[in-house]
């Protein structure tokens, strides 16, 4: 994650150039990586598509560099639960990143430091906000697609990882870090682009549910000042 004022500003500028969305330093999403059925607690690894997986939380910057991740939760775990129980959220809650923001889809809770789409927009400003949100946040979906294209062992077209959840998490982590090395060295993306195969999140578990007290106020302010 960016830490110095200059790094924070540079990261926010990269996202702002996409669609004028202010103060964003990262886009967050979850992705499922198929694993073989574990011998212990097998049921909790079955996700909503009925295959065994780890649900991996990823945050990337505007250049597709992965700046935070968590690969320790079983497939039945919802994105919002992973977010609420990760160290990164605690840092945002403590004000480590000031007034800078993450962008998440409707599977995440609306909080002062994580902006989600307006579930039922009622005016043009909210619709403009939603369009800017989608165009800006798509970088994380694209990044996840690229990672799985580079390393087919974590894409479902490559089958499933034939290891324990702990060993699988280490393999996934290695793939994420190797992706960053590719980005930093300017190695081209794979030519044969597979689609990210994950399922959409349930909007009612995130979206407009304001778990942070002032999340709605922050979003309303952004809509009013930048898209009104």
From TrEMBL:
Subcellular location per the Swiss-Prot or TrEMBL entry: Cytoplasm; Nucleus
Keywords associated with the record: Cytoplasm, Hydrolase, Metal-binding, Nuclease, Nucleus
Listed cofactors: a divalent metal cation
GO cellular component: a single term: cytoplasm
A Pfam family it matches: DDE_Tnp_4
PANTHER family attached to this UniProt entry: NUCLEASE HARBI1-RELATED, PTHR22930
Protein name, UniProt field: Putative nuclease HARBI1
